[in-house]
Amino acid sequence: MDRSPSDEEIRQAVGKYVARRGITVHPTETNTNVHRNPLLKFEIVRSVKDTREGSRKVPGSGKDIAKRGTYTDLETYPVDPPADPREYKRVDLVREGSFEVVDCEDCTGGTYLCTECDGRGKHDCAPYVDCPVCDRSTNVCWECEGRGRPRTRRRTPPRPRPAGAPERATCKRCGVEDVACPKCEGEGQLECPDCEKQGFVTCESCNGKGRHTHAECRGTGRFALWTEGVVEFTPVPDGANVPAPAGLRRQTDRLGRWRPVTLTRATDKLPDDLDPAHRRLVEPRLALGEREFGRSATLRHLPFCHVTMVADPHRVYYAFPSNSGIEVVARPTKERVRHYAAITVAALAVVALVATLVLAALN
């Protein structure tokens, strides 16, 4: 049904519905009240243009930036709005003559000297360390005491090994067996485990390079500078709704034959049969918005009636057009709902009282 049903058509549809429930009274103008409360779904999305300028600075030569469009007056630069006003669109531009590439002042070619090693890439390190077992004492070698010259046996008798003393090694300096520290073999020192006798270790800060990559310019040694202009089209939604009662919205959305109207311009006319209250809601929202460059507006309305009958005072019947005719849905009146709620509360109170009395008797 593509038109609003008449009151008589509504009464006939309600009559068929109540007849199935056993109510034989036929709805008439005198025993039935038809109240019209049409539903509305109105949505409008405006594509609103905005422009802004600002100074920009990025590492490198800015090759991609140099390829952007240039402008002298951002407001008059031609940018087409999005084909669909519900989509966001942004265009980045460069003010004519503002683009330049400058050297980074805080580095040289994208790197700077490592302060930990002064640019050497390494740190000095002693190639040898004292033996931790003999500590370069006379215990380094019982024969030569680390000097490499054996004692004069005629003057000094052999040194006896103390009980429980560890095995000794052949001294690398004097060549006498079983007299030297087993760790350093009479040398009194060991190769440094850090530098492996090289005399230096790699600087961990710069990993041996002597320089660091400059993070701010990302190792490029340059910056691209320009004045950026941005043109944006942002979707801004608005609308107005007059929905069905909460318990009926699924039925009206799913079964209702809504009548859609597409509005693309501020001057487009609203449907002649649109409810006056809906017209007052929609018309102010159709005015051309500030910096509006496009719009997408859809209005959907559905004739909707609630019907009361003298023969059935505890129910309200809701009727609306559907693809198969006129859909009718029944709901209890608010008074009936409150009545049932009061009965339920009273019943629960009685149950609670009985339970309390039973527990008291048992105790």
Describe this structure in words.
By secondary structure, this protein is of the alpha+beta class. Among the domains are: 1-34 and 304-332, no CATH class; 38-106 and 225-302, no CATH class; 334-362. Helix content is 17%, strand content 33%. It has 5 helices and 17 strands. The strands form 5 sheets. Strands 2, 3, 4, 5, 12, 13 and 14 form a 7-stranded mixed sheet that branches. Strands 1-15-16-17 form a 4-stranded antiparallel sheet. Strands 6-11 form a two-stranded antiparallel sheet. Strand 16 and strand 17 (325-332) form a beta hairpin. The protein is elongated.
How do the strands and helices of this protein lay out in sequence?
Layout: H1 7-19, E1 32-36, E2 39-59, H2 63-66, E3 70-71, E4 89-95, E5 100-103, E6 111-113, E7 122-124, E8 128-130, E9 189-191, E10 200-202, E11 211-213, E12 222-242, H3 249-255, E13 259-263, H4 276-282, E14 292-302, E15 305-309, E16 312-322, E17 325-332, H5 334-362
Parallel strand pairs: 3-4
Antiparallel strand pairs: 1-15, 2-12, 2-14, 4-12, 5-12, 6-11, 7-10, 8-9, 13-14, 15-16, 16-17
> What's the β-strand tally?
17
Low-confidence sequence ranges? none
Give a short account of the largest sheet.
Answer: 7 strands, mixed
Overall helicity? 10-25%
- Assembly type of the chains comes to single chain
Index terms:
single chain, 363 residues, alpha+beta, 17% helix
Tell me briefly what this model is.
This protein has 363 residues and is of the alpha+beta class. Helix content is 17%, strand content 33%.
